[in-house]
Design a protein that fits this description.
Layout (H helix, E strand, L loop, with lengths): L6 H17 L5 H17 L3 H31 L2 H49 L17 H16 L9 H9 L12 H10 L5 H34 L6 H32 L17 H7 L2 H16 L2 H39 L3 H30 L7 H23 L3 H13 L4 H4 L10 H22 L4 H6 L3 H18 L17
Helix pairs in contact: 1-2, 2-6, 3-4, 3-5, 3-6, 4-5, 6-7, 8-9, 8-17, 8-19, 9-14, 9-15, 11-12, 12-13, 13-14, 14-15
């Protein structure tokens, strides 16, 4: 079993878990989910499951210690008068800070060693070469467990939420292990909070027929995105990015555009299967996408794309830094010097920089990923800086910012900036990304489109037609959702004959036009590798 799109998952694993889940007494259903989750992870990662078990043990032990410290503090506070309580709180706060800091550093440290050892070694060797030092640094490389970036962030959020006393520590090791390993979120997220998932996972909720149908609809929709679109685009994109010197800027631009499409279809398609699989068990899993390509700014785009990651960075990096004493003092000072708009931006930009640097590192161990993060930091900060000027220009030229035409301009502009970012994200290193971008700017040509070269790089004319039809289907559904309407509710309200005809049409479309078999290499779970 390699992913949620595999035959083993869809035809064997998921149906078996669903059947046994419904046969199991309610109070033991969470145990079945735990067993299924560990089996799922072991089938994908083998002995690397030891990393997951180790992370769970670390989180479990430290969270229990935090709970005991909080309990001791509360008991002591009840016995002391008001004059002594402040000193007691400070004392126990420092104990908790040391403990939670150690826990977070251990978790992030394991991730850093496994994920970035090669990157660090290569860059140390490069520096030594520049200094003409004949030293060789050998840093061992490690096999990276699939999904480690996701469950590490979940582990950190759990520890910090216990520290902040938003949740109580879980005393049942098995239940915490289920949260950490839940098979629907372990590979590509979404990054769920303990407070959102714990009750759902442990209560053994009754499965309903309507939720089962909704879940199957969502799974089919995700399959269509992945198999018909993402996998069909794969060979074209790989060819362009691996051999970009053989193509002009027009083809490279098309490759970047199609990669952006592929990434969205693969990742959002995975989320459709994850959320749909959850729905058949009556679980409500956090939405990770909200029509991101209707965004008018880069900032809005990242509020709609990979939502759970953005919320994690906001809650555990941006807000703590912004509300820290040094940055609060900077904000107060800056407000007096440069006003209410630019003043908060000075301290906010420091927190924003840390968020996007972490975002770049989280996605991968390469300078192109760091560039990707800082590229978006620059765009968001630049947008905030020029906002007053932009408002004045629109007012001066009497541009109606609420008009459809202006919104269309904003959406197109944001889309172009996103595609440029994804070009560097997918490139074989930062240097390759720079060369590809330069070729787009200096060697843009449409010759490859007019002489049919475009139809000879892994996709023929029919492939493009199929992709366009499937993408337009997703686009229309996205428009409907953007208007606040539910496609699934509308379908469910139709007569049974029409409703099931639509289901069978979608299945037939996937079977007939899906990119599989000889000549196609399925796309590996892209975000699972981050």
């Amino acid at each position: 079993m390699s992913s949620y799109f595999s035959i083993e998952y869809l035809a064997l694993f998921l149906p078996a878990v669903f059947i046994f889940y419904n046969l199991m007494p309610k109070k033991y259903r969470w145990l079945l989910l735990l067993l299924a989750s560990y089996l799922f992870f072991w089938l994908i990662s083998g002995k690397l499951i030891l990393y997951l078990i180790s992370a769970t043990c670390i989180v479990y032990i430290i969270a229990l210690h935090l709970g005991r410290i909080q309990s001791q503090r509360n008991q002591l506070l009840e016995k002391k008068d008001r004059s002594e309580r402040k000193a007691i709180r400070i004392f126990y706060q420092k104990k908790q800070q040391k403990l939670v800091t150690a826990g977070v550093l251990i978790l992030i440290g394991i991730l850093a060693v496994l994920k970035y050892s090669d990157f660090i070694g290569i860059n140390i060797q490069s520096v030594l070469s520049l200094l003409n030092l004949s030293l060789t640094v050998q840093i061992p490389s490690f096999v990276l467990p699939i999904g480690i970036s996701f469950y590490t962030l979940q582990a950190v959020s759990y520890l910090l939420d216990v520290y902040r006393e938003k949740i109580k520590p879980e005393w049942n090791f098995g239940k915490l292990a289920l949260y950490m390993s839940f098979f629907l979120t372990i590979i590509e997220g979404p990054i769920c909070r303990y407070s959102d998932m714990s009750i759902q996972l442990y209560e053994g909720k009754k499965v309903s027929w309507n939720q089962f149908l909704y879940g199957m609809q969502r799974i089919l929709y995700g399959l269509m995105k992945k198999i018909v679109i993402a996998d069909r685009l794969n060979l074209f994109i790989k060819t362009i990015f691996h051999d970009y010197n053989s193509y002009d800027g027009g083809m490279i631009a098309l490759g970047a555009l199609l990669y952006t499409c592929q990434l969205y279809m693969e990742f959002s398609g995975t989320m459709d299967i994850v959320i749909g699989s959850g729905e058949i068990f009556s679980f409500k899993i956090l939405e990770n996408f909200r029509q991101p390509f209707f965004s008018k700014t880069i900032s809005e785009f990242w509020q709609r794309w990979h939502i759970s990651l953005g919320l994690w960075f906001k809650d555990y990096i941006f807000y703590p830094l912004s509300m820290s004493d040094p940055l609060k003092k900077m904000t107060s000072w800056a407000r007096k010097k440069v006003g209410n708009h630019y003043g908060p931006l000075m301290s906010g930009s420091i927190a924003l920089f840390c968020v996007w640097l972490a975002n770049g590192f989280w996605h991968g161990s390469g300078w192109n990923y760091i560039f990707f993060g800082l590229y978006h930091f620059t765009l968001i900060l630049g947008g905030n800086l020029i906002e007053p000027v932009s408002n004045r220009l629109c007012s001066y030229f009497k541009i109606k910012r609420e008009s459809i035409l202006y919104h269309f301009f904003q959406i197109v502009r944001t889309g172009i900036l996103v595609v440029i970012g994804e070009l560097f994200f997918r490139a074989q290193g930062l240097r390759a990304g720079i060369h590809m971008f330069i070729k787009i700017c200096t060697n843009f040509s449409l010759v490859s489109f007019t002489d049919s070269t475009v139809f000879s790089i892994g996709m023929d004319r029919q492939d493009f037609i199929i992709v366009v039809i499937a993408v337009m289907t997703v686009f229309v559904i996205s428009i409907i959702k953007e208007k606040g309407l539910s496609v699934r509710e509308h379908i469910s309200s139709q007569p049974i004959v029409l409703r099931w005809s639509l289901y069978y049409m979608l299945i037939l479309f996937i079977v007939v036009f899906g990119a599989y078999g000889t000549g196609y290499v399925p796309v590996d779970p892209i975000y699972a590798n981050f």
